[in-house]
Amino acid sequence: MYRIGSGAGFSGDRVDAPQSVVASIAAAGQGGAIIFETLGERTLALGQIARKHHPERGYEPLLEDLLEPVLAQCVANNIVIVGNFGQANPPAAAAVIQAMATRLGLGALRIALVEGDDLTGRIDLAQTERWDGDGRLPDLEGDVIAINAYLGAAPIAEAIRAGAQVVVTGRVADPALVLGPLVAHFGWAWNDLDRMASGTLAGHLLECGSQVSGGFFADPGFKDVPGTADIGFPIAEVEADGSFVITKAEGTGGVVDLRTVKEQLLYEIHDPAAYLTPDVTLDITAVELAQVGPNRVLVSGARGHAAPPRLKATVSFYGDWLGEAEISYAGPNALARARLAITTINERIRMRQLGVRHRADVIGAVSAFDSDEGDLLVDYEDEAPGDYRVRFAFGSNSQRAVEQAVQEVNALYCCGPAGGGGVRQSVRPRVRTISHMVPRDLVEARYRFAEHHP
Fold first, then answer.
1. What is the spatial distance between Cα 80 and Cα 66, in angstroms, rounded to a whole number?
2. Nearest 5°: phi and psi at 66?
3. Are 237 and 189 in contact (CB under 8 A)?
4. Tens digits of per-residue pLDDT, 63-92?
5. By C-alpha distance, which of 330, 243, 251 is closest to 289?
6. Most Cβ neighbours (<10 Å): which of 243, 277, 370, 414?
């Protein structure tokens, strides 16, 4: 049996979650692996922008918070670390990890980099097809930031077989983070499609972190989840035949049962008979689930078909500018004053001919008037007269026009309806992404060890 856990399901996940996962795998005394899935389409684009402005950046911003508390324990217990936390700059991430290891007195680690996903400047998008799933999206205009293909598990497996203790990737298919270590451990053949499917399914269930163990699941009174402040992240206990048990870290909150596993099983599945990945086409129509103990679900029956001939690639573009601003109104007749604020801003946009797209929403019952402890609202009567937050959003290719529109909301302080307050405002560039299908022969997936490799 091989244990592989999840330490993160997205960029921004709980930074202390990996600690209980590593502790549980280490306690079993058989080694294993932990994965970190921290890369979304826009996350990667933001990483590309960060690298262009600062060549030493472009990797997962929380990398040190996630990894430093568990790095020594992983090394000591033969737990391989695999993460797409390299984002747009795996070499920089590797350097940070090695610096961590040096600080911790671990010496030089065997850190492998997976490369080949960056196709920027290597393909003509006009010669490729858009991915069907983006079919309803409008065509994008603007400068291309980057084009990154979804790589498969092969370079990850090869790196681990060559002795890597840490594998740093950029864009790979999320399930490949799990399939790679499983292929390396069990020696599965790449043409053993059912085992490729099983490993991919295990990766699919782990890729979103706690979503399979009670995260993003709780609905009090309908789907109760204990210990939501300390949800245990999942661990797959995988057998050589590809069957596996999904469980979670010992001594943690959350829940693993048929409901949580079914929800994650169907996550982002467009066709249950043909879930396309770079390594295999996964067929879950014959998958069986069984509750085999508290917080333990047995998964079996995944079937595999030939991998698709093309790979999906994310194309990132610079978009327009987004401005957001909010203001609150509370007390008697608050809703009418909130609506008057919207009318006022609409008129000001027209009068100044700012040329921005805009919308406004009255969104809330909790305003910025109250303190963090909520002790101001207690002075209201049982039937509060009202407490409303108005959110404005502005979009344009002109940064200046968006800034001017946002400033108009700030001006409501003295020029708008009575009693407005708690203005928050921001202006930032937007990144847009769309997916294309690219020929496999344009993608050269590979690994190499970092320059400090011992």
1. 15
2. -75, -45
3. no
4. 999 999 999 999 999 999 999 999 999 999
5. 243
6. 277
